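pinned: reference chain
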Amino acid sequence: MFRLRLSLAFAVLVALVCMQAGFVYWGSNRVNDYAQHSRLASDILAELLELSASKQRLRVWASQQLMDANASPDVRDSQLARMQASTETLRQLARRDRSLWESIAHREGVPIPPEVDQLVAVSDLLNDNIAAVRARLLKLVPLERGAEFASVWQELNEVFDKARGRDLRELINGAIERQRNAMPVARAATERGLDQLRLQTIGLAVLTLAAAVVLALYLNRRLQRPLDRLLEGTQALRAGALGHRIALGSRDEFDRVAEHFNAMAAELQRHRLDADAARRRLEDAVLERTSELSAAHETLQQVDLRRRQLLADLSHELRTPATAIRGEAEIALRGADRPPAEYRETLTRIVGGVKQLAGVIDDLLLVAKAEADQLAMRFGAVDLSELLGEAAEMADTLGARQNVRVRLEGPGVGLPTVMLEADADRLRQALVIVLDNAVRYSRNDTTVRMSWHLQDQRVQVIVADEGIGIDADELPKVFERFVRGRRARVHRADGTGIGLSIAQAIVRAHNGRIDIDSIPLQGTTVRIELPCSHGPTLAS
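pinned: its structure tokens
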């Protein structure tokens, strides 16, 4: 029964609202068309002015080019691109304006203004004009001495201002003037439509409001008691009394609402119990996460301690050659005049110290560039065998001091020659770093072997030594910056621990990878895998 009354009341309100919406929709469409016409007129005017400005800038550029005043081709190209973009935008706006006027003319029975079609024609002419201007400006060269500027400039003006035999300057100026005149008319039409729409909306709103007040007073008397019961139930839920239930007995739609409300209260009570259990689980998870964060914090503290140790090591590495250089120089300056041979020896020692200092600085710069992804590479075709031979020869010279031999085991005659697309200097540097480490940490009278083989269009270079090896717990850290293992520090006190990190950065820049395996006191094996730029070819 109550549902029927409520349905009738809503039906009356819906009918009034639909009537109001119909009037508003009709009026808003009319106002929207005029508003669009106003915006289109403004946009068209802006594009026409921009087009004229771009063409004027091109005239200035052309005059600079004729007078050889360093006219930049980039300026010409950018202005031509702007003209092309303005023309395309103008064409689209003109077509939209034409379509809009067709809608207005069909609805209100008014003719389409002739300037609308003229604007479409102007936009079509502009493409031909831009093409002609582009072609002429591309051929434009500075005038020779004694050449007549006026005739060339007149010919350029013809190109700028004529298209299909018509004067574009007159057409564009006329279009600009028409759009300036059209904007106030469009605004006035929009304001009239808004006034009419406002009056219609106010009248229908007053009628709808009166009907709503009457229906509200009628329904209020029918709704007061059941709504009070529902309100009491909601207040109880708000206060947290999820055990509260609404009394039944009206035997109408509100009884069914009360039944659903009571079911909702029971469901909320169950969800509260579940939420309490979930909160307890979350607290346990937070405690567990807190312990993990504490462990991570301790790890970060260890990393910071290692960083401070690194800075101290670097200071020592840089201070040692600097102190030696300063000492040599001070000795040479304080002493009396000496034979030239002694001065040459002093300068030789100073140069050696400078080279050592520069080497450390270069390594640090290379690490910094690798971390910032700014490691410059100059790629080219590189013969792998030749590159490995050069690296092995350099390493063999380094190993002569401690009687460590470096042996290259590569392909012989008739076996494939591999070409890489690589930076030869950088890749040689990475190989020498690996070989130098192998030599440094090898025992006396041992051999470092370097070999390579092909697999699936990739080449693998293997460097194996018979040295002190690396402990298993330190292998994951060998490529970290400034990390030196326990055995390495005992075997040799010098070194900064950045060589392998530099080698890894260079190999990765070549889309390759580098891995290390080691057995303590037996030796270390380094594998460098690189892509081949071309398939292997037979050596001649």
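why pinned: The two ends are 105 Å apart (CA to CA). The longest helix spans residues 253-334.
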